[in-house]
């Protein structure tokens, strides 16, 4: 798996009380400072993979039957940050689906929802410019440009989370995008099954990464029904997808993967009692 695209994180250097003008830090100094912070927060080239990278299989599955795998977008923000982060990732995945299917009418609603969710996470200013650019590029049918802006949306949400020292939320955005992406991809493959298409869904490194992330989440979140669903369904997905003989999932297993992913996303959308 190619490492996900990670953010460019700018550190402001504040002059001391003597107000002596400092030399502007070089790009290499910025990169070193960024690398140090990411390492400290557990965010590196092997973590928070880009949702675009996770959904690379969708590009190989074109043309897609959009109506068969689309869904209603969230009409309001989740009340807790973990759900909201995962929901944000899922909506970014919906954006990539719209790009691949070239559904211009779907872009504006997705842009509005992403901006609302980013504001809920406290990083709206990081996403505003992407939301505006997404609409402009979709109006011009610049699908590669829309894809780039969606990548930038995740990157800048991650940047905002790092600024708040909230790396767990950055991981959950990626996890939410993966679950929604699995639901989409499995639905597409189930409709027109072949072993070659099914093999595109197998991502052992990604599964191991998310299994590790699930196990280290906040203890309070691990007491929720949503966490129990995430943990159980991820284990089952891994069991079916990674086989000793390295064979692709069967048609029945692809249908089961789709069901597991959908049930996870349904649990994400349900308010916990």
Overall description:
The longest helix is centred in the middle third of the chain and has 25 residues, at 167-191. 67% of the residues lie in helices and 0% in strands. Residues 1-25 and 29-47 have low confidence and may be disordered. The chain has helices at residues 27-41, 51-54, 56-60, 66-69, 81-101, 104-121, 124-139, 143-163, 167-191, 195-199, 204-215, 225-241, 251-269. The chain has one domain (42-269). α12 (225-241) runs antiparallel to α13 (251-269).
Task: Give the C-alpha Rg.
Answer: 19 Å
State the major sheet. Answer: none
Beginning-to-end CA distance, first to last residue: 38 Å
Secondary-structure-derived class: mainly alpha
Fraction of residues in β-strands: under 5%
The quaternary state of the protein chains shown equals single chain
Topology:
Blueprint lengths: L26 H15 L9 H4 L1 H5 L5 H4 L11 H21 L2 H18 L2 H16 L3 H21 L3 H25 L3 H5 L4 H12 L9 H17 L9 H19 L4
Helix pairs in contact: 5-6, 5-8, 5-9, 6-7, 7-8, 8-9, 9-13, 11-12, 12-13
């Amino acid at each position: 798996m190619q490492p996900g695209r990670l953010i460019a994180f700018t550190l402001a250097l504040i002059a001391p009380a003597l107000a002596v003008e400092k030399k502007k830090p070089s790009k290499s100094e910025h990169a070193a400072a960024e690398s140090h912070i990411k390492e400290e927060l557990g965010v590196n080239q092997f973590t928070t993979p880009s949702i675009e990278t996770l959904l690379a299989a969708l590009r190989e599955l074109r043309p897609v039957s959009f109506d068969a795998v689309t869904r209603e977008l969230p009409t309001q923000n989740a009340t807790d940050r973990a759900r909201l982060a995962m929901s944000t990732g899922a909506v970014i995945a919906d954006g990539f689906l719209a790009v691949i299917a070239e559904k211009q009418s779907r872009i504006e609603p997705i842009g509005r929802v992403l901006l609302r969710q980013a504001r809920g996470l406290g990083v709206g200013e990081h996403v505003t410019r992407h939301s505006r650019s997404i609409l402009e590029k979709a109006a011009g049918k610049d699908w590669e440009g829309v894809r780039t802006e969606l990548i930038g949306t995740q990157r800048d949400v991650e940047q905002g989370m790092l600024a708040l020292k909230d790396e767990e939320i950055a991981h959950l955005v990626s996890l939410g995008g993966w679950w929604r992406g699995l639901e989409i991809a499995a639905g597409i493959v189930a409709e027109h099954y072949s072993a070659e298409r099914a093999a595109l869904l197998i991502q052992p490194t990604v599964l191991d990464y998310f299994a590790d992330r699930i196990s280290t989440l906040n203890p309070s979140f691990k007491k929720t029904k949503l966490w129990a669903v995430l943990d159980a369904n991820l284990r089952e997905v891994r069991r079916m997808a990674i086989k000793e003989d390295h064979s692709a999932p069967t048609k029945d297993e692809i249908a089961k993967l789709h069901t597991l992913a959908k049930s996870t996303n349904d649990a994400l959308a349900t308010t916990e009692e």
